[in-house]
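Record type: monomer structure entry
Structure origin: computed from sequence
Chain ID: A
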Amino acid sequence: QQQQQQQQQHEKRRTGSGLTHHHVGGDPWDHCTLGQHFKNTRLPAMPIGLKLKKTPSQVNMMQKELSELSQQTRASTSRVQVENIITLGANPGGEGVLGRGPAMRLPAYRGQRTEGQEAATSSSSMTSSHLSLGGQGSPGAPRMKASNFPASTLQIGKWKKVATHEGELIAKCYYAKKKLVWEVLQEHGTKSKIEICWSDISKLSYSTPPQRSAFLEIELANAPSFKQESDPQPRRHTMWVKRDDFTEGQASLCRPHRLFFAPGVLTKHIDRLLKCDERLRSIAVKIH
């Protein structure tokens, strides 16, 4: 009995937990036995002991990131709205993007003019262009583009030029230079032209019937100038040099110049010319 008790105490010291084995000769470190032991054993919850705090630097960094993200979101939203407005536009009924409610008006970007400013600029430009071109030489003044329109016949005294092909006889009006030009294609393939200053026009009459040929007749106080193109090259700016009268001397002696145009060609060009110069408008006579 004493030996048995010593043996039992020895077994208790080996296991350290007072576990007994159900199988004779079993391994005391059998994983099933140990697993069951740890399953039944509950360890007390030990606090880590750490306290999380936000430092001022972390707060500043988070605020900065949130601010940048907000700006990116607003920029992306504005860009999408602008693209939608440009693509779809506002319909006459007042609906805006995708037809949802009134069209949204975005603020003008720096350097961009609003609708009111555009209208004021356009009105100012039209007024200065229609009333007078006296200020075209001043800096910033609008410049009107020269107009050209084909004529069918040019007659000066006994000399006459009849256009048989398109481009043989062209009338041009230069609003910045205040000149009228009759450009004639010669038989040898080069161009010659007659330049007339507006200030040299003493009389002006015209007729623009809707169904018949129109005509323009001017009378000059001084002889015009004559020029011819020099070394013509395709797709290059035309260079002009002075030349003698190519109308057999008629343009230097005869004051009246008369041109004929196809129906509807002269109307808008003569109206524009008279709106641009008050003196010519005062002496012009329309023949019905």
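Annotation 1: Confidence is low (pLDDT under 50) at residues 17-26, 28-35, 85-141.
Annotation 2: The chain is about 35% helix and 25% strand.
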